[in-house]
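=== RUN LOG ===
request id: a7f3
mode: sequence -> structure
chains: 1
length: 167
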Amino acid sequence: METGSPQDTQAQETEPLWTGLPPGLLRMRRTLLVLWLGLAALGTGLLLGLLVGPGWAALALLPLALAAWGWVLLGRNWRSWRYAERADDLLISRGVLWRAVTVVPYGRMQLVEVTSGPLERHFGLANVQLHTAAAATDATIPGLAPAEAERLRDRLNELGRARSAGL
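=== RESULT ===
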């Protein structure tokens, strides 16, 4: 049984292997959303209930509605982020309404950083920041596991040195 035409096979070979972000980033962002908007709802309800009257305390439901909407939007945004390592470049795709794909050639990379702030460290996450000669093409891959971020940094540095040797 034939699996497909030669064009289909060629298209499958050239299609990059995309890697999504780990769920830890989504967990961190949703935790922060619930924490901040939950505190806003509590503060709003208490202040309005004590100062104006209990009927006005119902306005505290507004931050809770925003939290529910933000929960869904954060999930969609998290699913939109992905990256792919190809032979000559790194692809980073992101965006829900406005899709953006950044192509960073290995030979143009000047610096690859792994950063992790206090919140990221608490949730076991790290960011990979790519710097190139053109400031507009700097790219970031957020929310990776620290081991994966270090592996990616080392691989990109190795590929960058190999590709820039010919320049």
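=== NOTES ===
The longest strand covers residues 109-115.
The chain is about 50% helix and 25% strand.
=== END ===
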